[in-house]
């Protein structure tokens, strides 16, 4: 009896050691990469399991992920990893979240159970709320953010998890030159209290910024090299004399200027989404594999350099690339379904300088059968040793 249980525990600890080794070799493989954030959107019916995605993320050296919900399968799959999550409250939840008891129970259900194993740094309350021109939703945004924040305070989590929202760049009515950045007049009644909230709780202002849309809108006026971070003359802001060599940084500084125009210089701006589609409809000028590769490839290089914008040179811009996968169920023009760095099967859409890969399902089962084989070997060796011992005795 005792011998059999020793045998089993020997084989299982060997298996544990083996899987540890496999995991370590996976982590230790010299893959080029840098610390960056990525949007993990899931509006698709063909994406790999979150567990396999965790393998891909690990090989990509991605340190921060943004979700549009609080998918428990994803949060569990990243249990024990160092990846930091932004999770999202959906737009349709906004009304209910203005009620602090509902906010608190949402946090208790969707955040608290994962927090000890998975890093959740931020909750976004809604995505691009202001672009829908829905007065009720616009009015609900700040109260919902406040009640989510107060619920976190009640639970003692406000120092761990911050509260923000993500906005479309279209909430600006002017962005050129960057120093003249201004919010849409009709949104100011909602944005003013939003900024006070950010300043009070020290949370960042998130913007979804797509130079692609600007280029698509006026391809004859905007230099493609300027939007793709390629060598170009750039532009000088006549008010500040600051030189811009790419549109994304100019967009961020336009947001800083718009915020400053409402009296705040104490709020950090982060890019919650940026990217470029690798495919588009005939009328979507600029949507191409080559442009997407240049935009995201150059963007990743810029991120590695931890640059700030010309107006905020000492604050490295925090950027979440959109997106990890092509999402086949997204409505709208073809470009919407083609922002991914990866196809759902794990092959890169283009070479953006990343060398991450999706662990194959066959590899998963192979390592399991390796484990069984090794377990069997250990079993046989143990038996031989036992027979040898017994014969000696
Ligand atoms: C991952 O990113 C970190 C932080 O930028 C860097 O120090 C490290 O070398 C990177 N690792 C790999 C394997 O690229
Ligand atoms: C809002 O709360 C009510 C009452 O608890 C619930 O019936 C409803 O489903 C909630 N709405 C959403 C969108 O979750
Ligand atoms: C919302 O309102 C703005 C400003 O009036 C307008 O430019 C925009 O097209 C509207 N958006 C929608 C989705 O109706």
Structural commentary:
Its EC number is 3.2.1.39. Keywords: Glycosidase, Hydrolase, Membrane, Signal, Transmembrane, Transmembrane helix. Residues 1-33 form the signal peptide. With 393 residues, this protein is an alpha/beta fold. It has two domains: 1-30 and 362-393; 32-355, Alpha-Beta Barrel (TIM Barrel). It contains twelve helices and twelve strands. The protein has helices spanning 2-28, 50-60, 72-77, 94-97, 100-110, 135-154, 188-201, 211-217, 224-227, 247-261, 289-304, 361-392; strands at 36-39, 62-66, 84-89, 119-127, 162-168, 172-174, 182-183, 205-208, 235-236, 243-244, 269-274, 319-321. The strands form three sheets. The protein has an eight-stranded parallel barrel, surrounded by five helices. A two-stranded antiparallel sheet has the order 6-7. The longest helix has 32 residues, at 361-392. The site of one 2-acetamido-2-deoxy-beta-D-glucopyranose has 3 residues, from loops.
Head-to-tail CA distance between termini: 19 Å
| Superfamily (CATH H level) name of the largest domain | Glycosidases
Query: Biggest sheet: strands side by side, in what order?
Result: 1-2-3-4-5-8-11-12
| Chain-averaged pLDDT | 88
Number of E-type strands: 12
Number of helices: 12
- Give the overall form: globular
- Bound small-molecule species: 2-acetamido-2-deoxy-beta-D-glucopyranose
The CATH class of the largest domain, by name, is Alpha Beta
Number of domains: 2
Query: Can you write the helix and strand succession as a string?
Result: HEHEHEHHEHEEEHEHHEEHEHEH
Strand content: 5-15%
**Largest β sheet strand count, sense and barrel closure:** 8 strands, parallel, barrel
Which fold name is given in CATH as the topology of the largest domain?
Answer: TIM Barrel
Q: Can you tell me the CATH architecture of the largest domain?
A: Alpha-Beta Barrel
Structural class: alpha/beta
Helix content: 40-55%
């Amino acid at each position: 009896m005792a011998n059999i249980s020793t045998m089993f525990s020997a084989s299982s600890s060997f298996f544990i050691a083996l899987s540890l080794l496999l995991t370590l070799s996976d982590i230790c493989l010299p893959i080029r990469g840098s610390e960056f954030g990525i949007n993990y959107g899931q509006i698709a019916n063909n994406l790999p399991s979150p567990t396999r995605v965790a393998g891909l993320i690990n090989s990509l050296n991605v340190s921060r992920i943004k979700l549009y919900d609080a998918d428990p399968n994803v949060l569990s799959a990243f249990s024990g990893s160092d990846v930091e999550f932004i999770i999202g409250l959906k737009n349709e939840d906004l009304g209910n979240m203005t009620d602090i008891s509902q906010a608190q129970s949402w946090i208790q259900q969707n955040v608290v159970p994962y927090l000890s194993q998975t890093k959740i740094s931020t909750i976004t309350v809604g995505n691009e709320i202001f672009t829908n021109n829905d007065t009720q939703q616009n009015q609900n945004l700040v109260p919902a953010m406040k009640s989510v924040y107060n619920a976190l305070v009640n639970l003692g989590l406000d120092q761990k998890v911050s509260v923000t929202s993500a906005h479309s760049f279209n909430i600006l009515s002017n962005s050129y030159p960057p120093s003249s950045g201004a919010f849409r007049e009709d949104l100011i009644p909602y944005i003013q209290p939003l900024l006070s909230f950010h300043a009070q709780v020290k949370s960042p202002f998130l913007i979804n910024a797509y130079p692609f849309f600007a280029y698509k809108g006026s391809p004859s006026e905007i230099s493609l090299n300027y939007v793709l971070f390629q060598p170009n003359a750039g532009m000088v802001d006549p008010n500040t004399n600051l030189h811009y060599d790419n549109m994304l940084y100019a967009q961020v500084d336009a947001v800083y200027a718009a915020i400053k125009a409402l009296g705040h210089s104490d709020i950090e701006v982060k890019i919650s989404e940026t990217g470029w589609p690798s495919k588009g409809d005939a009328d979507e000028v600029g949507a191409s594999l080559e442009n997407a590769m240049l935009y995201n490839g150059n963007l990743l290089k810029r991120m590695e350099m931890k640059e700030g914008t010309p107006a905020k040179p000492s604050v490295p811009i925090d950027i979440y690339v959109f997106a990890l996968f092509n999402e086949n169920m997204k409505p709208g023009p073809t470009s919407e379904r083609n922002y991914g760095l990866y196809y759902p099967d794990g092959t890169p859409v283009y070479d953006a300088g990343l060398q991450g890969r999706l662990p194959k399902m066959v590899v998963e089962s192979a390592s399991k059968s390796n484990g069984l084989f090794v377990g069997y070997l250990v079993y046989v060796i143990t038996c031989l040793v036992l027979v040898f011992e017994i014969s000696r005795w």
